[in-house]
Design a protein that fits this description.
Blueprint lengths: L5 H11 L20 H8 L7 E3 L20 E6 L1 H6 L12 E5 L7 E3 L16 H4 E2 L2 E2 L12 E8 H4 L11 E2 L1 H11 L8 E5 L2 H8 L11 E2 L4 H6 L4 E4 L17 H10 L2 E4 L4 H10 L3 E5 L10 E3 L3 E3 L1
Parallel strand pairs: 7-9, 8-10, 9-11, 11-12
Antiparallel strand pairs: 1-15, 2-3, 4-12, 4-14, 5-6, 7-13, 13-15
Length: 318
């Protein structure tokens, strides 16, 4: 890998690992096609104890966003309150009162999925479509996140790289997770990774941010997947992958004068569903305690028509 030639590396990986046409010219799901009925039955059979874990961060003003590219933390506003009800100003009969609220936020400000229309490669969207014909001011007209909503449920696998490879359960910022790190972690956990799995990679950065403050969590230095894992992400035929970091891949990126090069390969070329800013802490503790790193996972995006990303509230059940 020539660190001075991101263009060449991206082009080579895009050609080598492209899934364009694999599921037909009209495909809207990408690697979610690997997550079929059999895989869901396999995932459901993993429920033994019935314990569940939320994998979502909070959606509130105390989140990590600092306004980069107009990404802000959620703004929650009450429309009706208990005060209004107690004062009798709501106009309802026979003593009825109620509360209502509204939230305004970027769709990718906290725990979220990147949709297939989120990233382009030289003007091409997923499956080789022209970006300008896919995402317009009306939204993603072809691969909007709503198409994925019924499909993201199945066998989840946690790879706690922070615990296996790191120090004190955490990887340092700038640590590039390689294929060897991923396979070593899977072996240490006694778990397999393969077709149709939803893989969760814990680095420990979120735990550090909660302890020390958000700092540059949103967009700054972070542990994450190495660009060299593109082949593993393609070869394993996983359905989706999510991390506890802002940007999924290692930051600073491994090339000079580059920005999120692994995104440029895996979303528009592989068609891989990527999740970011997931809270894997409680799940990781339980996996370490009981030694079981595979579980039932449901993580449907909100079916927001034409969206290129979505908040998500994933739940793992063991």
């Amino acid at each position: 890998m020539n660190r001075h030639d991101p263009e060449g590396a991206i082009a080579g990986a895009a050609e080598a690992y492209s899934n364009w046409g694999r599921w037909g010219e009209d495909d809207r799901l990408g690697t979610l096609n690997f997550l079929d009925e059999g895989k869901r039955r396999e995932g459901a059979a993993l429920v033994r104890r019935g314990v569940s874990f939320s994998l979502s961060q909070s959606f509130d003003m105390n989140g990590p966003q600092k306004g980069w590219r107009r990404r802000t933390n959620p703004v929650h506003t009450m429309l009706d309150t208990g005060t209004d009800a107690a004062l009798g100003t709501q106009g309802f009969p026979h003593g009825l009162g109620g509360a209502d609220d509204v939230i305004a936020m970027p769709l990718q400000c906290s725990t979220q999925w990147d949709g297939l229309g989120h990233i382009f490669d030289h003007g091409k969207a997923w499956n080789g479509r022209p970006a300008e014909r896919v995402v317009t001011s009306d939204g993603d007209l072809v691969t909007g996140i709503e198409h994925m909503a019924p499909h993201v449920a199945g066998r989840g696998v946690l790879l706690d790289v922070g615990r296996v490879i790191g120090s004190g359960g955490e990887l340092p910022d700038g640590f590039a997770i390689t294929e060897e790190h991923l396979t070593t972690t899977a072996e240490a956990h006694g778990v397999t990774v393969g077709r149709g799995d939803i893989v969760l990679v814990r680095t420990g950065q979120l735990a550090r941010a909660r302890r020390d403050g958000w700092g540059e969590y949103a967009g700054g230095p972070a542990p994450g997947l190495s660009f060299t894992t593109a082949g593993w992400l393609h070869r394993t035929e996983i359905a989706a992958i999510a991390t506890d970091t802002w940007g999924f891949e290692v930051r600073p990126n491994e090339f000079e004068h580059a920005f999120q090069p692994l995104h440029q390969v895996v979303i528009p070329n592989i068609g891989l569903l990527i999740g970011e800013m997931w809270d894997l802490e409680a799940l990781a503790e339980d996996c370490a305690d009981d030694g079981a790193y595979a579980f039932w996972l449901t993580a449907a995006p909100l079916p927001i028509t034409g969206a290129v990303g979505s908040p998500v509230s994933p739940v793992a059940v063991k």
